[in-house]
Amino acid sequence: MTDPQRSLENLAAVVDRAAEMAERLDQGAKVPPVAVEACDGGLRVIAAPPGFIKVEIREPRVLQRGAAEIEKEIGRAANEALHRLRQSMSAAVPVDPAEVAREFATISAQGRRSFAELLDAARRLPGDAR
Question: Which superkingdom, per the lineage (predicted)?
Fold first, then answer.
């Protein structure tokens, strides 16, 4: 016979383990934004997790430059900012996708077993009409 208390504790442990895994993966989102200047400091491009880009006009005179030059500078700065952001996110949380998949499979299997034990214990409770 399965003990309901033990089954609940097992299921809670599986949920805790899944939450810990999600928290580890989420650490990359806590990396600070990366700023790169463009147009001799007249523009600043900021990249933030998970890959958002913001362009700040720091010096309005920069808009007097040609559109082609401004586009080129924004593109260069955005690419550099995203590259730096990816590097800092990788350094913050080195994640091996194969390891994450294995851990997820293990947690899922444990969760299914624990839930099955809990259901079995609930079915055996006194007063069950089955």
Answer: Bacteria
